[in-house]
Design goal:
By secondary structure, this protein is of the alpha/beta class. It folds into two domains: 130 residues, no CATH class; 247 residues, Nitrilase/N-carbamoyl-D-aminoacid amidohydrolase. 39% of the residues lie in helices and 16% in strands. The chain has a six-stranded mixed sheet with strand order 5-4-3-2-1-12. A six-stranded mixed sheet has the order 6-7-8-9-10-11, covered by helices on one side.
Length: 437
């Protein structure tokens, strides 16, 4: 049902473009690119938004090609991905002429996209100076084992042991989403044990759930807890962007009566937090916490007016198993680093955990299915936020206006050529008729 619902967005885009018979292949390609990008914007906004795996992430395999996101966000990459993919359709048009030109233009766009990004990366130098060292803990707990009551202590102990191994020089230890299988705020012994593995003078950040069973119905939050060496909760962040049908059942009163349930276990819906926050802690630069798929929202990962120095993404990608999911999730998170000009630190339960610099390059990583720790220095942010972080969709709107104007010019020129061809054909037919007489 989720796939069927999401399919409506590209169906809307292609359906609208297909209402017109385009005289110019270039104009039709531009129309498709604009409509497709607009449909992705709708998908990212309506009903809470679900901007997973937008078509612009097709360029994520190249560090150079994703640099455009600093100017346009992933939306500009989506526009180009569709346009570059559609323009070569001109080669299939019947007749002669310069059918190769649109395909050549697509190749030129690819070359410019890569060369512009390579030029930006050539000047990408990190400032020298001390940087805090972070320890990312990847417990590698399979999803079907994670919540078995008889195994909870084992997984908790695994995270404690990994955190304590030779942590000299580490300022903060970071556990992934849902790493602690106990209610941290209600379990003093759990907090005490966590405090024992916090680096001296440092902090430990961990994902966990908190519950309110006294309310009716019961309530739950997907949270990030920050603890000090004394086991005290210094601060907490509650996830705002919840996964529909995963963390809550939309319109539960209606859909629940129809027999629908969440795809995850339990009948308690998670509650949304108040929104993006920039958290400042002793010994660490201020950061923006992002739990799980909160990192996939372009332009929505920092608190307005309170730019952090880095992004922290804690996630449990064990749901995906060994599939494309964890790789897609990492690719999307990397684009947020480019868009915001901020380093990204990502702690994932089964992987892929990584440290990403503000140009989207992976500085260190723990691969999928690996149990271990990753100690890495936190990269510095860009001195000034890139255009997309400052202007948002205004840059995209200007690009769309340029594409729309080019589309109209191409279609008008094609219509003019068609009229000239028809006029010439009629003249030839009339002349042929006179000759016959």
């Amino acid at each position: 049902m989720l796939c069927a619902g999401l399919a409506l967005y590209p169906a809307l885009a292609t359906g609208l473009v297909g209402l017109r018979r385009w005289r110019s292949v270039s104009a039709g390609a531009l129309a498709l690119a604009l409509a497709w990008t607009a449909s992705e914007l709708l998908r990212a906004t309506l009903f809470g938004g679900f901007p997973w795996n937008l078509i612009g992430y097709a360029f994520a395999g190249s560090d150079a090609m994703i640099q455009l996101a600093a100017l346009t966000g992933v939306w500009g990459l989506s526009l180009l991905a569709v346009l570059i993919g559609a323009l070569p359709a001109a080669l299939l048009e019947p007749g002669g002429g310069r059918r190769w030109l649109p395909a050549a233009a697509a190749g030129l766009m690819l070359a410019l996209l890569w060369s512009g990004g390579a030029l930006r990366l050539a000047g990408a130098t990190a400032p020298a100076g001390p940087a805090p060292v972070l320890r990312l803990v990847q417990g590698n707990v399979a999803q079907h084992h994670k919540w078995q009551p008889e195994l909870r202590a084992q997984w908790f102990r695994r995270h404690l042991d990994l955190s304590a191994q030779g942590a000299d020089g580490v300022q903060a230890v970071i556990w992934p989403e849902s790493a602690t299988p106990y209610a941290i705020d209600q379990e003093p012994e759990v907090r005490r044990l966590i405090g024992q593995v916090v680096p001296p003078g440092g902090l430990l950040l961990t994902g966990g759930e908190r519950f309110d069973f006294d309310s009716a119905p019961a309530r739950a939050w997907n949270s990030l807890f920050v603890l000090d060496p004394g086991g005290t909760v210094v601060t907490r962040y509650d996830k705002r962007d919840l996964v529909p049908f995963g963390e809550f059942l939309p319109a539960r009163g209606l859909l629940g009566r129809l027999g629908l349930q969440k795809v995850t276990g339990g009948s308690v819906d998670f509650q949304p937090g108040p929104g993006r926050q920039t958290i400042a802690l002793p010994g660490l630069p201020p950061f923006s916490p992002l739990i799980c798929y909160e990192a996939i929202f372009p332009g929505g990962v920092v608190e307005p007016g309170a730019r952090p120095a880095w992004l922290l993404n804690v996630t449990n990608d064990a749901w995906f198993g060994r599939s494309s999911g964890p790789y897609q999730h990492l690719a999307m998170a990397r684009l947020r680093a480019v868009e915001e000009g901020l380093p990204l630190v990502r702690a994932a339960n089964t992987g892929i955990s990584a440290v990403v610099d503000p140009w989207g390059r992976i500085a260190a990583r723990l691969d999928l299915g690996v149990t271990g720790v990753l100690d890495a220095a936190l990269p510095a942010p860009l001195a000034a936020p890139p255009p997309f972080a400052r202007l948002g969709l205004r840059v995209v709107a200007a690009l769309a206006a340029l594409a729309g104007a080019t589309m109209m010019v191409a279609e008008i020129r094609a219509a003019r050529r068609a009229r000239e061809v028809n006029k010439s054909a009629k003249s030839a037919t009339t002349s042929s008729g006179h000759a016959g007489l």
